[in-house]
Structures
1.
Amino acid sequence: MRVLALLLLLLAISATAQPQKDNFYDDRIDTTAKAPPKETPRTYSLPFIRVEGNRFVDEQGRTVVFRGVSIADPDRLERLGRWDRRIFEVLKNDWNANIVRIPVHPRAWRARGEEAYLKLLDQAVEWANELGLYLIIDWHSIGNLRTELFQHPMYNTTKTETFRFWKTIAEHFRHNPIVAFYEVFNEPTRYNGTLGRMSWEEYKQIVEDIIYIIYAHDRTVIPLVGGFDWAYDLTYVRESPIAFPGIAYTAHPYPQKRQPPWEEKWEHDWGFVADTYPVFVTELGFMSADEPGAHVPVIGDETYGEAIVNYMEKKGISWTAWVFDPVWSPQLIKNWDFEPTTQGRFFREKMRQLNPRN
């Protein structure tokens, strides 16, 4: 009897000591829209931006359209001795940009180290805050995040590294209105099958995991999500949009992605999304075939430039032109005196015309 009683006692203790069911995926984070905190750790020059319907709006509910540029990776610029406030001053005061996109290459993030790279980004935030510019932080990889095969070694990463990157960034820039957008993965592509298979549903799951991590740390930032075909094709959003509120979609509609006339094709492939969700064209640009670094799909001229800007203005779509660098192409500048190229003159004039002057 004593043995039986002891066994029953041990069973009872074991039952009560069993861990609770892991309900991580059932314990939803609060995805309801939240106002940004009334007080932030420091003084910022710009208001928080949020999503309202298919628009970006400020804290007073006023529509905001962003028009700016992408710069080169800060790691590269620092190694060249070109990472300084002057870039941001020229973009704000001469080009009249209101936002700057900062690409972070996985290889550079690893090589420089997390702490040292964050110092570069902190400098960008400081300069942007002083000048009244918003920022996009872009995880600048190209390839298949499911198979972890990528187009070039500089883009090599893993799902785990990508998750950790966004955890680090979201913690570090929590409740910072200057860092308004996180582009969660630059250009998803299966590269005609050479990088393996990946369905939209598989990619969507990875993206939603990233957004879950970001939102667990900060709900004042707006995640940006690109489609397949090097962030061009958003047709999957018709049937299966990202299952989180407060996000926006990105497109990279370079001139040779489709043959002219472009407008109906843009509308079918990605522009229709702007009727329901905000769309941010985070890369666009053109160059002639005889310019250094010319390659498919960026060869074009001002005919494309006028068409894409007119289309985006009609749809209320924000944009950042690629790229404010004299080497990476299509270049917006010829040299570090910031002399604009043909496309640089074009986009500088558009920003001067379209962006409100502070």
2.
Amino acid sequence: MGGGTVVLAGAGGPVGFQLAFRLAAEGAEQLLVVPDEARAPRLPGGAALPEAEVVVLGHAPAPDQVDLALDGADTLVIAGISSGDPDPVDLLTAHRFRRIVHLSQIGAGAQGTAAHARRHWRIEEAVRGSGAAWTILRVSVQFGTLIHAVRDDLLRAPAGHGRVAAVSPADVADAATAVLLDERAHAHDGMTYRITGPEALTGEDVARTLSAVTGRPLRYEPMSAVDAYATPVPWVRDLDAWISCCAAVDAGVFEDVDDAVARLAGRPARSFAYWLDDYPGELATLRRGASMG
């Protein structure tokens, strides 16, 4: 990794959380950037990760506040862009980094179908123009997103019959860790990777797998965007972003499978069924037979 402190922006998200633990295990010095200290990754029992300092920054911090908080930082990892996290472009403007690894989104572009794809494109442009060495990992939809729209044994989403090569957050973290810790100097400079799971799933595939794992007769039912706005999913904070992501699934944006996880992490990406077996807590509510609503 070349030494220096790693700034992990979005450390409180599902990928950032896992990435923080991987870097801590390798002895990396980290600044864990979160909008609220309660969201910072911690060891069981609440102890801080070794060599990790928590930095609380809101969505629009002052430039001098950023530069002071990130003093001595060498590498920036953009692992999340939730509404509470600081805008990564503000971090790039306020502090000069030697290296940047950006976990972007598949389909990123000025005219991207998904709202986050357009936002990630703006960040990608800033990363490429920063003067730092950069690597971009364009990530598919994560597995957790596939199960949270289940309500009363029905998976409903405005995704039509599109396919999505969804991916485990652990695989994203492993791929990013491999890039960051690669001992070959500059091996990933200027590279853009597509991070996907091993198979392209339809809504019917997702429901079938969930039924097999939970023993409940789950089924998938496509819905229109109009219906989605009328019956919002409780866990979704940004309904526009979720509906536009589903539209991207329907349009085939996420359907292509890539082997980047295997090439970077040295092992194949985990399947949806494997991930469910690995993270049974994700299905706790479904196994109890309770409604997700």
3.
Amino acid sequence: MDQEKAKTYKPEFRDFSVKMAIGSDKPIAETARDLGISANTLHTWISKYSLAKLVGNTAGTDDHLYEEIKRLQKENALLTKERDLLRKAAAYFEGVLSI
């Protein structure tokens, strides 16, 4: 059983293909055939392009996600420290009041 290796396409070609398919009056299947790619592949690229545009994500950059993760990690560390401090204070006051 020979498995075919999936073709990889450069981002520039993907962008060009999506813009060509969206801007053309031709059906997407015909545009895909002209470009030598599968119609399903072109549909997938168009969906990803539309989703990225809808979300406002710039092509290929996830910097805002990394920034958000970093911020959330800092916030989580602070909340963990506050929780531990409150637990210690509760234990202390429980000991003082029970005497």
4.
Amino acid sequence: MPQTDIGSSDRLLAELRSWVEHETPTTDAKAINGLLDRCQADLAGAGAAIERLPGRDGFGDTLIARTPGEGAPVMVAGHVDTVWDHGTLARSMPWRVEGERAHGPGIYDMKAGSFFAFHSVREILRQGTRTRRPITLLLTPDEEVGSPTSRAPIEAAARGACAVLIPEPAGGSQGACVTGRKGTGGFTLTVEGRSAHAGGNWSEGRSAVVALSRIILQIHAMTDLGRGVTTNVAPVWGGTRPNVIPPEAGCRIDFRAPSLAEAERVVAAIRALAGEEDGIRVTIEGGLNRPPLEESPANLGLYEAARAIAARQGYDLPKQHRGGGSDGNFTAAMGIPTLDGLGCSGAGAHAPEEHIRWAELAPRCATLCELLETLG
């Protein structure tokens, strides 16, 4: 059991509701900063040292809170942005509790987990709990679009840390934590052809859409489920009118790979599609965004510590690998022991049925809190 009293699931749910009902789409810096303002006030009032990094490129701020202490800190990081637009609560996903499930936009991915991190640090400070190491807490604004502005602060904080904890949602029916994630990347591919009348001068044209179609099939063929590699093309665009040979076309490409070697192989294969031939020019921009979170002995050591704490809380904590990336990919690739998926159990990330199993709020938050108290 943690030394810190983190409260009951009912208490946690009541405060978590205020986070969910404060809608924070990634695209609204003001909304995100409004939630961070509340977090900053509570953490500063409890005695945390606060660093607030101003947002840029249209994104919100990054909030960093540090507890007193000496030595390499334990770092915990969560994002407060969601994929849901303003008005989702009113239109289609109202806050509601139905039996063991609490519903609302972003509650599972990942407001419950980020709230765990915030609440644990706040209560550790309020209650004067002695921790083995100082704690560094990051609350970030842009994970859902690849962490373009928060990656650098995350990596900077991780360089001095002894361990990194990521309270992304627990996965599957058993609420597993995550010891491995695929690397993720993306490209924008554009094709330039030559326009012509689709009837009178067909042979003078060079269809960018036809060229793109052939390339899409090549990209699709790079998927190798046996090796854990997937590719996906969407959205796709091209052409202007039915009677004009299309001079332009393009697409976005997503890929996932389980290891850095596989990721580099896929990146090279996709980039090799660029070039110019027979009046068609193919341009490709992009690459690997999140390196793989590869399972390591250090990560497994963190997992075993978490699993033992969970057992004392009365639940089993299995582990799993996932195809989606998180900010833990960045820190694991740096060689910092990283354990992911320490948020609440539930389902429906990015989907209308998004929910958590709210009775598990207290035991799972207690597991994260005890890790923060004892790691090091």
